């Protein structure tokens, strides 16, 4: 897009000031505005004011937000700043797992986000249905792009021929204690409760008791403060050699190349990017339907 538009990226700095890396990676300027992922009213008001100041200074034609918190703060600030086109992409709805007063609060915030936006892009038809059922906005404001997805993927980047070196793949499997005869289930994403990791590990534990030639490869970081896993889940992951956890990786493609099936049991996901990647690599996908 930077070939056709002047792009300005806005986000929290992230760990190790990761936002600065976008300058070289994407070739765009960036502005850091700290936004938490928790319910923090005072910090959120500060972030809205900072975003408002950026929008009034830059006078953008379009503001396009992603993630629930950035969507709420970004759409509200863009509305107040008079930005003509305010677009928000929905990649999932964390609120569907909330109950009681928290659910009421999140529903209200979601409605405010949609009312401040001029167009809402759910990344799946399942999410669109939930949005309409909950009455967050009217159908005319919603648009699912093609058959779904937030922005698709570059199929040439996920071409399996780029990772078909048998020796390199076997070396990675060996490093991860995966035998040539093992069937590998892989999960790629944050290792948190609302991604279905507790259920995934429990199901794998039951299956492994009957089929000891299977392995579970978890590619992603924990988030112990925001959404921790159950103690029994962590204990099984740490004590068995049938489950491998890589932590954060910069390139997930080698792990697709050594896997047989992708598992994605998220509670509230739309149309995740990893599902596209699994199809490119020609491996089976097991996922919830949203």
TrEMBL record:
Keyword Transferase assigned: yes
Tree of life domain: Bacteria
Species this chain originates from: Algibacter lectus
User: Pfam families annotated for this entry?
Assistant: Glyco_trans_4_4, Glycos_transf_1
Ranges for domain Glycosyltransferase subfamily 4-like N-terminal come to: 26-148
SUPFAM superfamilies for the chain: UDP-Glycosyltransferase/glycogen phosphorylase
This chain belongs to which protein, by name? Answer: Alpha-1,3-N-acetylgalactosamine transferase PglA
Domain Glycosyl transferase family: residue ranges = 171-272
Keyword list, A-Z:
Transferase
**Which GO molecular-function terms appear in the entry?**
glycosyltransferase activity
Give TM segment ranges.
none
């Amino acid at each position: 897009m930077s070939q056709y538009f002047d792009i300005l990226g806005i986000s929290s700095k992230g760990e190790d000031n990761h936002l600065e890396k976008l300058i070289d990676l994407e070739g765009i300027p960036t502005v850091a505005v700290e936004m938490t992922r928790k319910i923090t009213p005072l910090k959120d008001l500060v972030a809205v004011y900072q975003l408002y100041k950026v929008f009034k200074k830059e006078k953008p034609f379009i503001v396009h937000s992603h993630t629930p918190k950035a969507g709420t703060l970004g759409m509200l600030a863009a509305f107040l700043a008079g930005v003509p086109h305010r677009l928000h992409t929905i990649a999932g709805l964390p609120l569907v797992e909330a109950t009681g007063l928290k659910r009421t609060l999140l529903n209200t915030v979601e409605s405010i986000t949609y009312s401040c936006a001029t167009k809402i892009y759910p990344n799946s038809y399942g999410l669109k249905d939930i949005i309409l059922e909950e009455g967050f906005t009217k159908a005319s404001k919603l648009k699912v792009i093609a058959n779904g997805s937030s922005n698709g993927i570059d199929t040439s980047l996920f071409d399996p021929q780029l990772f078909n070196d048998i020796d390199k793949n076997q070396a990675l499997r060996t490093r991860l204690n995966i035998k040539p005869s093992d069937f590998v289930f892989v999960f790629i994403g944050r290792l948190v409760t609302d991604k279905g990791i507790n259920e995934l590990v429990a199901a794998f534990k039951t299956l492994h008791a009957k089929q000891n030639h299977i392995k579970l490869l978890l590619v992603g970081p924990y988030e112990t403060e925001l959404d921790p896993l159950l103690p029994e889940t962590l204990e099984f992951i740490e004590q068995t050699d049938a489950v491998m956890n890589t932590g954060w990786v910069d390139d997930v493609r080698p792990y697709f190349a050594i896997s047989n099936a992708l598992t994605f049991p998220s509670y509230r996901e739309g149309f995740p990017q990893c599902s596209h990647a699994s199809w490119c690599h020609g491996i089976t996908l097991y996922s919830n339907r949203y």
